C-alpha cells in the first residue's frame, strides 16, 4: 500500500485529489496539509511514501518545504511529487534541485496523477514532457554556469555515460533500449549503476547533474 500525503492550500483540490487517490486499491491517503510548514510536520509524523506538494502555499512554499523534508538525510524520507498550475519560472529547476522526484501540472488527466504517484513511489522519476523542455531551456539560459564535475563521473563506463546523456534528454528506458539496440532490462541495470555511482536518488537528479556538470549541453 502506497501512503500519500496531499499538501495544497485549496481545500477543494485536497478533497478532489484525496477522493481520486483513495479510490485506488493500492493507494492510502494518510493526511493533508494547507501550507508548507504543516506539510513538513505532517510528513514527519505520518510517514507517507509520497507527498503531493503544491508550489504556491502560505507560511512555507512547496519548494522550501521540499528542501526541508529531503534535506534531513533520513533513510525513510518520502518521495515528493510537485503539483502546480505553473510550468514557468524556476519552479522546475528549483524543485528538482531540492530533491523532488517528479513534477506534474494540475491540469493533467486524473489517470496521469494516479500513474505519477505509483511511478514516484516505485523509486523512479516522473517529468512531464513540458517540464523536461523547461528544464533544458533553463540550462540553455545559463551558459557556462556549470558546477565542477564530481569525481564519481569519472567512474562511469562509456556506456553508462551514454545512458546518462539519453536520460538527460528525457528518454525513457524503452526509448534508450531502442536507441542502443539492447534489452530494456539492460538499460535498467545501467540506470541503477549510474545512480549508485553518482549517489543520486533518481532520474530527476541525474538530469540536473548531467546539465549542471556539462555532461550534456542544452541544445544538443
UniProtKB/TrEMBL annotation:
Which protein are we looking at? DNA-binding response regulator
Instruction: Give all 4-aspartylphosphate modified positions.
Output: 54
| Residue span, HTH luxR-type domain | 149-214
Gene Ontology MF term list: DNA binding
Q: Which GO terms describe its biological process?
A: phosphorelay signal transduction system; regulation of DNA-templated transcription
Please report the organism this UniProt entry assigns to the protein.
Micromonospora sicca
User: Would you indicate the residue range of the signal peptide?
Assistant: none
- The answer to whether the entry has keyword Cytoplasm is no
Alphabetical UniProt keywords = DNA-binding, Phosphoprotein, Transcription, Transcription regulation
Please name the InterPro entries in this protein's record. Answer: CheY-like_superfamily (IPR011006), NreC/VraR/RcsB-like_REC (IPR058245), Sig_transdc_resp-reg_C-effctor (IPR016032), Sig_transdc_resp-reg_receiver (IPR001789), Tscrpt_reg_LuxR_C (IPR000792), WalR-like (IPR039420)
UniProt KW DNA-binding keyword = yes
Q: Which residues form the Response regulatory domain?
A: 3-121
PANTHER family found in the cross-reference section: TRANSCRIPTIONAL REGULATORY PROTEIN NARL-RELATED, TWO-COMPONENT RESPONSE REGULATOR
- Listed SUPFAM superfamilies: C-terminal effector domain of the bipartite response regulators (SSF46894), CheY-like (SSF52172)
Superkingdom: Bacteria
